[in-house]
Write a structure and sequence with these properties.
The protein is mainly alpha-helical. The chain has 9 helices and 8 strands. The two termini are 63 Å apart.
Length: 313
C-alpha cells in the first residue's frame, strides 16, 4: 500500500476523532460513571464492614468517656486513640472504595473535558461566522454607496424575472416573478417572506404594511424592555409558525444598548429605496421580503449571546 495513502487515512481518522471529540469524551465519561456505580455496588459489603468498625469505635469511646480511669488503663490518651481511629478508618474506606471513586472521578473529568471541547469548538465557529458577517456587511455597504440600494437588492436576491404578454386588443400584461418564488434561490440570512403562507397576510397591500409596522413597533418595544430579542421571537410577533423558525434564529437577534451607551432599533427595511420596499410602500405588491437589520443598516447579530453582560442593562 502507498505510504501517502496510509498517511492520508490516518490523518482523516484523526480529523474525525477531533470533530467528534466532545461526543467521544461524553460517552467515555458516561461509561466511567456507570462502571463506578457498579463498583460501588460490588464494594457494598466492604464498605458496610468499615461502617460497622467505625460504629464500634464510636461506642467504645462513648462507653469509656465517662470512666476517668479507663483511658490511662488503656495505656493511651483519648485524643491519640481517636486520631488513630480516623487514620485507620480513612485507609479502610480508601481500600474499599478507591476503584469505584476513581472511575467516578474519571467520568466527571471526561464530562468537564467534553464541555470544554464543545465550548472551544463553538467559539471557533462563532469567530469564523463573525468575521464572515462583518466582511459581508462591509461588502453590502460599499455596493450601496457605489451603486445604490436598487443594485444591492438585485445582487442580494438575484433580481426578478419579468414576462411581458401583449393581448390581441393591444393590452400589455407585465408579470414580475420575485426571486423567492424560485425553488433554487439562495437563502438570505435573517429574512422572511410575508406572503399568503402567513395567517395575517391579506390581498390588501395597505393592510399588510400597517400590520408589519405594528409588528415592528412591538419588536422594538420588546427590545427596549428586555434588552434583547431573538430572531425567531420577531417572526412569532408577525404570525410565523413553527416551520418558519430556524436554528440560526435561536441565536441571532438584536441587542438594545451598546457599550458607548447608545441604543438600537430594529428595521424591517420597509423604508429602504430598493424595488421591493418601494413597491410595497406604493401598494403595488401585497407581499414583502423582510430582511432584518438595525435601523442604521447594520445586519442582525448572528450571535446575540456575546452581548449578554451587565453593562448592557
Amino acid at each position: 500500500m502507498n505510504f501517502n495513502t496510509i498517511t492520508r487515512a490516518a490523518n482523516t481518522c484523526g480529523l474525525l476523532l477531533k470533530k467528534h471529540a466532545s461526543t467521544i469524551e461524553f460517552v467515555a465519561g458516561t461509561v466511567a460513571v456507570v462502571a463506578g456505580v457498579v463498583m460501588f455496588v460490588k464494594s457494598a459489603n466492604d464498605i458496610a464492614d468499615v461502617n460497622n468498625e467505625v460504629e464500634a469505635q464510636k461506642r467504645f469511646i462513648e462507653e469509656t468517656d465517662n470512666d476517668e480511669d479507663s483511658w490511662p488503663g488503656l495505656e493511651m490518651t483519648k485524643g491519640y486513640y481517636i486520631r488513630n481511629c480516623i487514620k485507620d478508618d480513612a485507609v479502610a474506606y480508601t481500600k474499599a472504595m478507591w476503584k469505584a471513586a476513581g472511575l467516578m472521578a474519571i467520568g466527571i473529568t471526561m464530562f468537564g473535558l467534553s464541555h470544554a471541547t464543545i465550548t472551544n469548538q463553538l467559539k471557533a465557529v462563532s469567530a469564523s461566522l463573525a468575521a464572515t458577517s462583518a466582511s459581508y456587511a462591509q461588502y453590502r455597504k460599499r455596493v450601496i454607496e457605489d451603486l445604490g440600494e436598487e443594485k444591492d437588492y438585485e445582487y442580494l436576491t438575484g433580481g426578478c424575472m419579468k414576462t411581458v404578454e401583449v393581448k390581441k386588443d393591444g393590452t400589455i400584461i407585465e408579470t414580475t416573478i420575485p426571486v423567492h418564488e424560485n425553488a433554487d434561490s439562495i437563502y438570505i440570512p435573517h429574512s422572511y417572506i410575508f406572503d399568503e403562507h402567513n395567517i395575517n397576510w391579506t390581498k390588501d397591500p395597505k393592510r399588510n404594511m400597517y400590520f408589519l409596522e405594528r409588528g415592528l413597533t412591538a419588536a422594538n418595544r420588546t427590545l427596549e424592555q428586555d434588552g434583547f430579542i431573538f430572531e425567531n421571537d420577531i417572526w412569532k410577533l408577525i404570525g410565523g409558525d413553527a416551520s418558519d423558525m430556524t436554528m440560526a434564529g435561536q441565536c441571532a437577534g438584536f441587542h438594545y444598548k451598546n457599550v458607548d451607551g447608545s441604543t438600537n432599533k430594529i428595521s424591517f427595511g420597509i423604508e429602504r429605496n430598493n424595488p421591493a420596499a418601494v413597491a410595497f410602500r406604493n401598494e403595488e405588491e401585497p407581499s414583502y421580503m423582510i430582511v432584518l437589520q438595525y435601523s442604521d443598516g447594520r445586519p442582525a447579530d448572528d450571535d446575540l449571546f456575546k452581548f449578554v453582560n451587565l453593562r448592557a442593562i
